[in-house]
Amino acid sequence: MSKLPIPHAQLHYADPAINDEAQTLPIGRFVDRIHHPTLGCPALLTPDQSLEVLLSLPEGADPRACVVTLVDRHGETGEYALKAVGSPVSLGKGPAGKDGRRELWQLSFDIAGKAFRLYDLRLQWEGKEETQPNAVRLYERITGDEKVVFCGDAQYHVDNEVCLERFIERINRLDDIAWVALIGDVCDNGVRGEMNVLKLALTAKPSPVHSYYAAEYARTAGKLLPRLNKPIVLVPGNHDGMVAYEDYERGESTNAYLGPDPKNTVAYDGLHHFRRSFGPLFHAFTWHRTRYLCTNTFELDRHERLGYHAVVANWGGWMRDEQLGWIESELKTATAADMHKVMLAHHDPRGGCLGKALGYYSEMRPYEFDKVYDVVVAYLRYLANHARTWQEEWMVRTNQSLADHPVKRLLETLVEHRTWAVIMGHDNENWVETYLQGDTVFKSDPEVRTYPASDEDPVDPKLVRAAADLLADRDLEALAQQLAECNEAEASVVIGKALERLDAERHFDAAASYAPAEVENWRIRAQAPIHFAHVDDVGAYKYQKEAHFSHYGYVIAQLSEGRPVNLQRFDLTQSATEGPVVDLLAATE
Ligand SMILES: [Fe+2]
After folding, report:
1. How many angstroms separate the alpha carbon of residue 237 from the centre of ligand 1?
2. 516 phi/psi in degrees, rounded to 5
């Protein structure tokens, strides 16, 4: 394993030339000179290790003029200006940008003798200062028997701050948590709920495009997550990486993923914001005898991540060759070092989840600005129902042979290297599915942990019927008028029930790409026990009543040799209701 947590080709990930200059709307610069460690990709260290810092400086600058300091913001042990060990090493120059070119430097620092705390990392250079909050945690020792927190989907937006606040307060009171991993959908891109999707659709026009990202990333990176008194590992999800073009009418499909797009003017791309706010899109770290791969499963081409504001056609997973190759090489090295492996991934590569619709890959839909009805209804069906066949776990390109699908290569690599667990978000579900040696990974035999009963606001059935009729007539405007009298929570239930009714009446065409026979032909079988676990959302669109918080939560994992061996769910109600313990080791015996 590389001493550097970031793949070599991604080292310049936060360079303004490939982020700020590739979109027209302004972007926050929370990650600028310090490329590692960062808020979302922290250094988790014991005193026998050195702290490796990556600095992106203007070409020709002397990295020895940088002062790097550990700041104990959460406690009272003060600050430590760090002493470099050896000489700075150049890792090469970045692309040419408007302000010239940058060079990336690796500096090593001795951390022996420092208090065992969580620190901000502060850089002072040429009279300027930059701080990465919660970027370094020093542990007296790492036994591999610690507890950690897994969760997903904060989906932070302007109205649901209470969810992330509750979560942070709760985790801050737990003294025995070593670190937290939030597995995608940190931000929301202003989806905010069903009614808002409807409103956005009705006001859709090619320009000007409004972005929620600048405010959401600024609030999470600048205010909320730094309040956490534990280090947090972040990976991107679909809500973090949506895209808008300046001109939809002239927009062209290209295979640009990030950076400049030769045929389109990009208003915003959430993945640029992610890199400039939290850190790299994929990275890895070692915890005791376990290698954690923190992956990006939203590597669709940019036009495939397109939406109007938050209304998008495609929200399932994809992975490109570069990352697949990096995963293979990481797993190979970890296998050679006799380590356990765990992958953190927002989307489930098996297509479905909860033992249902496994092998279901959602067909890619083009986003067409002037055909917004179909996009909106598809998106509402997912938001309102979370129906298994309407959740997009992973996409498939039209006319693509499933034999070439990236998840085939990914799953084959995972089982070949006897990966212990894949831990995922995206679904607000909480369960583990374990496959034993010889099982096909599409076998539906889950060990299920369900949520407390839902507490829906009662609604008038006549309102539901009328809403269903308006949806069937494709009259979104009249629907929005009808629901204007309802509060947000009621409107959300009416839309959900209306869509359920139309589904039951077989009003909608199936748009599935469901291929159990083909994926069965892949013959991907576990070579050792492998656990697929989905963990809870921290927040979403219901937060108006105390009962709504029973839908949100997090999982505390007990580790052994650094890997999770049992998981327990806690909800976000004031009483923090505990779920049953799911024992992963027992499941393999
Ligand atoms: Fe998601």
Report:
1. 5
2. -60, -35
